[in-house]
């Protein structure tokens, strides 16, 4: 039995998220008894508008001007410890609608795409294309010479480029006029949405949760149509924290006390996990994340199956903000990358998620255990290991949400109309 609503009214919730959880509890109590727990939760979250979600801290609702340099954008994202930020069109009129005011969202994923374009060999089919990646690299070389680099040789031996890239490449790239003069608007082709997919205040929690899980959004902007501006940004971390603050409530406990294995987690076998080995180039990790559309990959020991670290999209900042830390490495392998970054963070006396130690769990842990761990460690993924420490799977927030709610048939209707590109696997 849940706590009676009358008694809960006299309680003082420990946080805005807990207050929200108590509201869901009230809705849970009045659901039809024949509904399954998942159907009950769907109905509850469909009754809560996203305007009720607590506002993000002011230091996380950051907007980046379209004329900001890529170098400055990287610094802003790293400084505020955020993965992405909306880009404001500096040429938009003051009274522009939100669609005309923003040109997209810049995120570390898009910056990774841009960097990889600078490092890829020429395409044999389009050797002289002005928009080919090699042409962009040639422009970079022409703009600054990328002093000290045999760029032509690197391009000619493109297949070996990632394996031989040293800290010199990133020192040259980040000191080049090309990098400093490239504006955020210049990489707008790497943005996923145009300008981005946003929620309005009266959209529901269920819509927000489905966008974060099934439709693979890393964060969801909430727009104020009257102001034509973003009112809130709901991140994966914020949702994890909300769930963590709801422990003890009946609706949460009915689901959260189940073991991961009972809920079919992790969702894939170990051999299907996207991963890199410690002796592979770190650029291979970022290429895999780009190709497979995942936010992070485990680093596996050579010749074994134990994870020794994790590399995520946000970690590209360390190639761009501190390239000198790889100066002594002839090649930046995944292992060298982890070693250099850990040493750098220790010298800076910084605690950084996932690089300090691998965060793992077991199949017989509960969803509640997992959510509390994700929240306390400020991370989005946990690796599942067996009793010997061998990697068995990975669980992300998306996987957790997918076991919490489901998409009713035809739920989104015309929600995605006019949005390009359509999300993969959409049924609408």
UniProtKB/TrEMBL annotation:
SMART domains: CBS. It comes from the Eukaryota. The keyword Repeat applies. Pfam families: CBS. Residues 57-123, 268-329, 354-412 form the CBS domain. InterPro entries: AMPK_gamma/SDS23_families, CBS_dom, CBS_dom_sf. Keywords: CBS domain, Repeat. Residues 1-21 are annotated as: Disordered. Residues 8-21 have a biased composition (Basic and acidic residues). This is CBS domain-containing protein. It comes from Rubus argutus.
